[in-house]
Design goal:
single chain; 148 residues; 2 domains; three-stranded antiparallel beta sheet; two-stranded antiparallel ribbon; globular; Ntn_hydrolases_N; Proteasome subunit beta
């Protein structure tokens, strides 16, 4: 790859990682990670995801773990093709707040990465604004008959 002028774009790296994860699965020695890959090639953005067993897909937005269950519906509702960077950050912060409220042991700090053809910029860590005084947080099983 160094001397022949070829380079790997995000799609090629995504396909390679899919094969690596699937191969490890078949050897009954999976890498217990879910990978998110993002890149830009020829003006086309490329977000992709690979699970620990080699399941992969590409979409306009990807998520892992609880994000697949809780954040993807928010992203489906609020994402559109011409979303600005600032609006995208707001939607992402909304998703992260939902995930934070679901898992109180998580920390409320995050960093935002922006991937362009010129390169990658990563923000400084910052904290999400949270509000823990909702009545439902004080007694979450109120009104749930038969709960533990």
């Amino acid at each position: 790859m160094w001397d022949d002028g070829n380079s790997l774009g995000p799609k090629e790296v995504h396909n390679y990682l899919t094969r690596v994860m699937y191969n490890r699965r078949n050897k009954f020695n999976p890498l217990c990670n879910t990978l998110v890959l993002g890149g830009v090639n020829n003006g086309e953005s490329y977000p992709g995801m690979v699970s620990m067993i080699g399941v992969s897909f590409e979409d306009n937005h990807v998520a892992t773990g609880f994000g697949n269950h809780l954040a993807k519906p928010i992203l489906r509702d609020e994402w559109h093709a011409d979303v600005s960077f600032e609006d995208g950050v707001k939607v992402l912060e909304k998703c992260m707040c939902v995930l934070l409220y679901r898992d109180r042991s998580a920390i409320n700090k995050l960093q935002i990465a922006k991937i362009t053809e010129e390169g990658i910029t990563v923000s400084q860590p910052y904290s999400l604004k949270t509000f823990w005084e909702y009545k439902a947080f004080h007694n979450p099983t109120a009104g749930a008959e038969g709960s533990w």
